[in-house]
Amino acid sequence: MTDHELTTMLKDLADEPAPPSRIDVDRARRAGGRRRRARTTALVVGCAAVVAAGGVTAVSVFRHTSVPPPVAVAPQPAPVAPVPTDNPLVAKASFGWLPEQVEGVEYGAGGHGDYALAIGRGELPPMIWLSVADREPPVPRDLSGTPKRVPQKVGDRDGYWLTADANDPLNHGDSYLRWPTADGRWAQLHAYYLAALDLQRILTRVAGEVTFANRAVPLPLHVSSLPSSFHLADAGLWRRPDTDGVPWRVVLQYSSNGALVTITVSLPGGHADGLGKPECVTKSGLQACVAIDKAQAAGVTAHELLSRITLLGPDEAKWTPHVIG
């Protein structure tokens, strides 16, 4: 075969169509799909086996999802002890630590509010008022401007200073500190005339050491009984020696059929509160006075009421929390 003939044959062969492929593309695609589905099924079956064995959620294999945090359970308010019924003066809260400027603690209950008052001496004695409310109290009327809240931790509680000046949490010395209590109520300190370089720290410490419980305040008298028509108007244990000349004074006021009945107990020489001409007795180193503005409406005379009173003396360690009955 000449070179020319060979060249001609190769050219003719190149021009022939290629032989059919031995690979069926559609068949291969279908087979590949079956194998992929088989692998997926095996994976799911394997995960199901793991779930059955170990409690793993199968869907987590395919989708990354963050585990939801546990649902926080709101703490239940601690129960509040019942209010004693044999004492007209019951404190809802009591001070723990107090600064040196404080000379004593007063208590009040009734129409003019329930409070404990840490008080000092002098013409303008330093005062720290402690009160407890069932809900967050409103803004005091005498707080000027637009009130601001400055956060303040009181123990583990998120409280705040209430002030007219956001740059001065102490409100220029007329300070309000509020915080929620463990039993679901709200406590407040209102302090003024209290001078100290670290006043913010002092008041925060005072607040942090307050205890919350209904506590009958011991008083220097016992009353055998009161007429059923008597309803408490106000009760107070006051400590104002610079004002009334005696170290303390107890005042219990009752309304009765439109009359006002006032019992005052102090050291001899103390001022008798109330309306009407007081009748007084001195026993066991103490003075007791009863004033009634409308004796006929009250249903009892001052003399009769005094006869029901036993005085316990000036030693506060001998006073009783069980006052009535």
Description:
This protein is α+β, with helices and mostly antiparallel strands and 325 residues long. Helices cover 22% and strands 30% of the residues. It contains seven helices and 16 strands. The protein has helices at residues 3-14, 25-54, 59-62, 199-208, 241-244, 295-298, 302-307; strands at 90-94, 104-110, 115-119, 127-133, 148-154, 157-163, 175-180, 186-192, 211-216, 221-223, 231-238, 249-256, 259-266, 279-283, 286-292, 309-311. The strands form three sheets. A twelve-stranded antiparallel beta sheet has the order 5-6-7-8-4-3-2-11-12-13-15-14. A two-stranded antiparallel ribbon has the order 1-9. Strand 5 and strand 6 form a beta hairpin. The longest helix has 30 residues, at 25-54. The radius of gyration is 42 Å and the shape is elongated. It starts with a helix and ends in a 14-residue tail after the last strand. The chain crosses the membrane at residues 40-62. Residues 1-21 are annotated as: Disordered. Keywords: Membrane, Transmembrane, Transmembrane helix.
Describe the secondary-structure layout.
Blueprint: H1 3-14, H2 25-54, H3 59-62, E1 90-94, E2 104-110, E3 115-119, E4 127-133, E5 148-154, E6 157-163, E7 175-180, E8 186-192, H4 199-208, E9 211-216, E10 221-223, E11 231-238, H5 241-244, E12 249-256, E13 259-266, E14 279-283, E15 286-292, H6 295-298, H7 302-307, E16 309-311
Antiparallel strand pairs: 1-9, 2-3, 2-11, 3-4, 4-8, 5-6, 6-7, 7-8, 10-16, 11-12, 12-13, 13-15, 14-15
